[in-house]
Input
Amino acid sequence: MATKAQLHPRNQHSEGYDFLRLVAQTPELEAFTISNPRGQTTIDFQNASAVRMLNRALLKTHYNIDFWDIPSNYLCPPIPGRVDYIHYLADLLAESNNRNIPRGRHIKALDIGTGASLVYPLTGQNEYGWSFTGVDIDAGALKSAKKICEFNDLDINLRRQDRPENIFRGVIQANDSFHFTMCNPPFHSSMEQANKGTQRKWASLGKGQSKKLNFGGQNAELWCLGGEIKFIARMVEQSVEFADQCLWFTSLVSKKDNLQLLYRILGKARVADFKVVEMAQGQKTSRFIAWTYMKKNQRSLFVNSSAT
Output
């Protein structure tokens, strides 16, 4: 097994993929396995069908998801890195709970752009028992997410965002309260840029040229006008309206160079606190930014008052 030692210590995939166990749980995966030059079992990550089957096996083996599938043209996320976001969010909540991770349905999470895969609610619910609300602008993605919920008898609230210019507006209701929001924003500013990014990634992996987008993806999943910086800026702008209804607002930030501008945007929003949490997966470093309008004593009260 290939070691991924830099994943979060609680990440079930920190020791790599156990293909013997995965194939035992999902025999269909065996048809997609290959041997790498070192003789280790792996899959061809440029094969979208192989990646989907790997995800299906991972979700069944590690997260008790008996059925999982997505339409072929939707984003197929790498499970280990996505789960890291969940574990670091748990650590963030623990800071306001005497260093104890709060678990159970009373912890409410809002997943912006939940996608057809529903990866964050599926993994977060299994790891910590949290209650998730998934939001997406794409009707096809929500249809896929609903199918996953129904087949696995999961209680995940799904909401449609009808207005492309809105993120929190229209989906956070007056009686809602959330311990955190999370988001993997579209980080390219155009489809052309998304394609170029994919070509660079395949080249860096020694895979040569590929016409395929890495792990697939719809337009709204991959790019938006202004890229991730404009998307997160709009998120910050709208978060002010829901300052009392959410403990932490968070978003992945793909480009480290965007952080300085985000710091200035958050400064103008007069948040009570913000932080950047770095996550390492092998040679890749990712991060999310988190901000709150609540003072430290308010944060503790928010966590504990919601524990009913």
Notes: The first strand starts at residue 33 and ends at 35.
